[in-house]
Amino acid sequence: MSTRLYCFPHAGATSVAYRPWKALENDRLTVVPVDQPGRGTRRRETRTDDFRELVASTAAFVADDLRRARATDPGARWATFGHSFGATLSLAVAAAAERALGEAPVRAFLSAALPPGLQKPDDTDALSDGQLLEKIAGDGGTAPELLSNGAMSAFLVRLMREDYVVRRQFPAEAGGLCVGFPLTLIAARDDAYVTPAQMWQWGGHSTADARRVEIDGGHFAAVQDPAAVMAIVGGDIAGIGDIGVIGEGER
Predict the structure, then answer these.
(1) Residues 107, 234 contacting (CB under 8 angstroms)
(2) Could you read off the pLDDT of 34-65 as tens digits, one per residue?
(3) pLDDT, averaged in runs of 10, over the chain (251 residues)
(4) Which of 36, 67, 106, 190 has the highest CB neighbour number within 10 Å of its CB?
(5) CA angle 226, 230, 236 (to 5 degrees)
(6) Environment class of residue 116 by beta-carbon count within 10 Å: exposed (0-12), middle (13-18) or buried (19+)?
(7) Distance (Å, rounded) from C-alpha 202 to C-alpha 205?
(8) What is the pTM of this model?
(9) For residue 68, which phi and psi values (nearest 5 degrees)?
(10) Which pLDDT does position 153 carry in this prediction?
């Protein structure tokens, strides 16, 4: 039985972040990178910085994609993966898509993100474009050649600013989010922004089980080592749970 994994990128990014993951697909798992409206594969749609509108339009995108896939693969299941900013968005979209489809995802995978209740306003909005580029470079999630390209760097700064408008809405709009399907929580041991203990608090956003997995590396470890994460995803979807996982936490 195949599963479509809808993947949500970090702040300031597009679905291109998951292009390397496509090479790891197999007949049981298909990677479906998800853009926000106005970006990448959805560039013809109207951009929005309203959290509720963003969730509704993206849930419709996921539901429509799954319905189309089932025309040739009637038994296709679905799951979500979200990294950092994309984690909160992915869980909210999964909940909305469940209502649209009348069917829950197999599992939601969350990586490197503070739960909404722990997210506090920061000074990112006050940074100049140059300072914001320095922050993006320092975080290590963007290729240096993109940051050195004037047009591309300006594009990335715009995306980051747009996403921070949405991020400020997370505590109010997603703080009470609670789903009924299982979660896998992926935390990097050396993440400067999210400790494993903070990551585990996402368990309070589901009435089902929440499995904890620790991996080596910093904030972008999960997206920079797709093979390791795909092994975690594949194992959990298959109900095996520990295939390819190093330093697995307790369930």
Answers:
(1) no
(2) 999 999 889 999 999 999 999 999 999 999 99
(3) 95 91 94 94 93 97 97 96 97 98 98 94 78 78 72 83 92 97 98 96 97 96 94 89 39 35
(4) 36
(5) 150
(6) buried
(7) 5
(8) 0.90
(9) -65, -40
(10) 81
Helix ranges restricted to H, the chain = 19-22, 51-69, 85-101, 129-139, 144-147, 150-167, 170-174, 196-200, 221-224, 226-237
Structure tokens at 83: 């990294």
Indicate the DSSP class of residue 131: H
Q: What is the b/e burial string over 204-233, where b = at least 16 CB atoms within 10 angstroms of the residue's CB?
A: ebbeeebbbbbbebbbbbbbbbbebbbbbb
Burial 133-162 (b: 16+ CB within 10 A, else e): beebeebebbeeeebeeeeebeebbebbbb
